[in-house]
Write a sequence for this structure.
DNA sequence: TGATTTGATAAGAAAAAATTATGATCAACA
DNA sequence: TGTTGATCATAATTTTTTCTTATCAAATCA
């Protein structure tokens, strides 16, 4: 390991360019002795003379010629490091790893990814879809930059910002479309189909029915909302789905969607990231874009919802 | 121009490798605050965070990942500069530009180049053959590393070392082989063929005859010893050549070679280089190799010379 | 030869980098 | 829920490095 400094390389480069200690020193905005000393130091560190000091002129040695080329490469690389830094701080570029829970991903992401790509053309978006605990862990491990989950998360190391609120709606088979709307308590008596363990949406639904979350219930738990709706369509029971899923999930199923009476079940979906993330600033911007995409989606979904009293 | 230091790059690289300030500092043989401060300084200079300081671990930012790669490249290039220096100081490598006067080059060089290449396999020898004033000028300009010329040169900026002494011998047509040997004065009366202006050998020959050097004489001046000998062989006159040229030049010409009586004309051929040349040490070694090559050559030449009384 | 140019050297001042000591934060744990 | 231990940041001080001014020595130029 050689202990030359970049400063010395700069001085040396200037000296090679000017072939004159005084002028090189002037170009470096230092005094001539300072330059002399640094060059001398550099030669001592390298153990080989960089230049031949003639009486009237300074000439590079053969090694000096090689060295100045190498020095220029090094200096260029160092300057490029500065450029890289500027590029990375001015705008959001490169990879953005975003995690999304499964009860949000299929409905929100198609919009969001399009909008983000429009706003940040140089952004390379990676999506990870899994349940909240895994997302939070991966966020903590630095495998994700941000995650979209149901709030609150209440991790002290994370910042969270709400994106949108959404209602839960009841999904019944089409045949039951005109049956009276069950309330939270009567739901408990019905065959309520739910997602498998780990999904926050399962816990949210159970909580609405004042049921303890935990071990499996009567029927096999589903791994996606699509499956749930298909099961309902087959007459196996009823379920809850988030409002945002309605347009997509009812397209290919003969089910009836009904809203609850107040107090309607609902959840807040938000975005979280490490407080320490250097992307924090840009992530707030991104949250705003996601928020707008969600609002557009909600405006469209609302029209589809029959209001059941 | 960004003012980061190589030291900072080293610290940063260690930090990236260890992912831990304390251990990285230890690896750098400095205290942890010193490392912290340098990393902080580096981030300020770059204007972008290199790492995310979590409570329990340190993680590179995306930019940090890019930066550490670049940093490694820079550090490697700097270390290679050290290697280059070592290579250039330990032994003579690379280009050696050597100038030789035309009355020496064809006879001495074949041997010398072979010996030099044997001693310094990595040496790349460039030969320039021209007259002394040009050689001296090019030496001064740094276009040559050394020159082999007739001594003395007496340039204060140059060091000179003798290589060998050589006699001048008379070349006559074969028909005149048994004619009495002319002395310096009688030579003046004969048709003495000489090299063109600029060749030191011309001046040396003229000086031996006590003639003024200068403007052309009776016949057209030759540009090489070969031409001179061929002209002599054709009966156009007599000439002097250096002893070393005898074996080569008499091979294809029917001429008689005769030595003068004392005081024999002679010259000293030597090697010169800039006093300031960093190769000075190695050039002295090279001079020794040339000296040996010249001695071998002289031993062989001597046998060929008839001693005329 | 004397004046001028040019790089090296010396001594002191200024700046940078290191050290030790201490603080703040946070996770782990009782 | 306070305590502990680990970890990085900050502060004050010392040490080291770098720079400046002044001056020298060598060599060219007139």
């Amino acid at each position: 390991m050689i202990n030359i400094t970049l400063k010395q390389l700069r001085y040396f480069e200037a000296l090679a360019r000017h072939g004159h200690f005084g002028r090189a020193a002037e170009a470096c905005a230092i005094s001539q002795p300072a330059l002399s000393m640094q060059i001398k130091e550099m030669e001592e560190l390298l153990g080989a003379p960089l230049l031949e000091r003639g009486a009237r002129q300074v000439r590079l040695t053969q090694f000096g010629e090689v060295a100045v080329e190498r020095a220029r490469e090094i200096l260029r690389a160092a300057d490029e490091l500065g450029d890289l830094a500027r590029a990375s701080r001015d705008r959001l570029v490169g990879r953005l790893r975003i995690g999304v829970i499964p009860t949000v991903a299929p409905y929100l992401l198609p919009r969001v990814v399009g909008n983000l790509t429009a706003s940040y053309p140089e952004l390379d978006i990676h999506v990870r879809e899994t349940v909240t605990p895994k997302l939070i862990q991966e966020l903590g491990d630095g495998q994700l930059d941000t995650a979209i989950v149901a709030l609150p998360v209440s991790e002290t190391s994370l910042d969270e910002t709400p994106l949108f609120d959404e209602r839960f709606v009841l999904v019944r088979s089409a045949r039951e479309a005109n049956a009276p709307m069950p309330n939270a308590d009567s739901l408990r008596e019905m065959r309520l189909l739910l997602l498998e363990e780990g999904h926050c949406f399962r816990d949210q639904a159970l909580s609405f029915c004042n049921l303890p979350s935990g071990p499996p219930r009567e029927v096999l738990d589903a791994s996606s909302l699509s499956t749930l709706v298909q099961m309902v369509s087959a007459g196996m029971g009823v379920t809850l789905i988030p409002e945002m899923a309605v347009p997509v999930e009812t397209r290919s199923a003969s089910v009836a969607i009904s809203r609850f009476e107040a107090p309607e079940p609902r959840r807040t979906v938000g975005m979280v990231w490490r407080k320490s993330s250097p992307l924090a600033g840009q992530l707030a911007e991104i949250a705003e874009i996601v928020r707008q995409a969600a609002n557009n989606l909600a405006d469209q979904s609302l029209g589809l919802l029959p209001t059941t009293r």
Remarks:
- Chain B touches chain A through 46 residues (CB under 8 Å).
- Chain B has a mean pLDDT of 87.
- Chain B has three domains: 6-90, 94-164+267-304, 166-259.
- Chain B has eleven helices and ten strands.
